[in-house]
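Forum > Structural Biology > Help requests

Title: Can anyone predict the 3D structure of DNA topoisomerase (ATP-hydrolyzing)?

Hi all, first post here. I have the sequence for DNA topoisomerase (ATP-hydrolyzing) but no way to get a structure on my laptop. I'd be grateful if someone could post the structure tokens.
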Amino acid sequence: MSDYSDYDDDDDFVIDSPPPKSKKKTPTKATKTAKTPKATTKAPKKKQPLANTTNTSATMASSPKSKKKKSTASDQYQKLSQLEHILKRPDTYIGSIEKYESEQWVINEETQCMEKRKINIVPGLFKIFDEILVNAADNKIRDPSMKKIDVKIDVENNAISVKNDGKGIPIEIHTKENMYIPEMIFGNLLTSSNYDDDEKKVTGGRNGYGAKLSKDH
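Reply #1:
Sure, ran it for you. Structure tokens for DNA topoisomerase (ATP-hydrolyzing) below:
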């Protein structure tokens, strides 16, 4: 028997193989995900009460206030011409020039009869119209043949005409004033045919204003 009979071949010739190398794991980079910023809502600011502000541009542009000039005694006391006084103080001659409601006789266009009712009138306008009517009525004393007075009111043209069928005004030059008589008595203050106190009149004026007031106003 051989000396090698007890030799175990399998045990002696087995070569241990090295253990397999473990693959190194490459560390994966963590991808950062961008965070969406959260919308922050701020509480609305409390409204402040309106403050008084000065407009500087307007202040700078405005011219400095001029000092009031002291009025002299001559400025305080004035003298007006007759025409200036009539225009400045019409109530002295014709009454108020303000409109107001008054009860008056008017003609009813449907019945063609006079009736009394409230209307708006201007006393000053009423007065100067009356002055012309008085002139027309006074002519009846100078000319007894006069029979009628014709009054026309043109609303569209704001005109009133008054005429009578008596003797007219002489169309001739006044020897003293060197102007036509109609121009003198209708265009100049304090001219009248009624200064003769012995002459009979119906209701006519005698102060030399009358019809001239209708021209001035």
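Residues 1-16 have pLDDT under 50 and may be disordered. Strands lie at 100-108, 113-121, 149-154, 159-164.
Shout if anything looks off.
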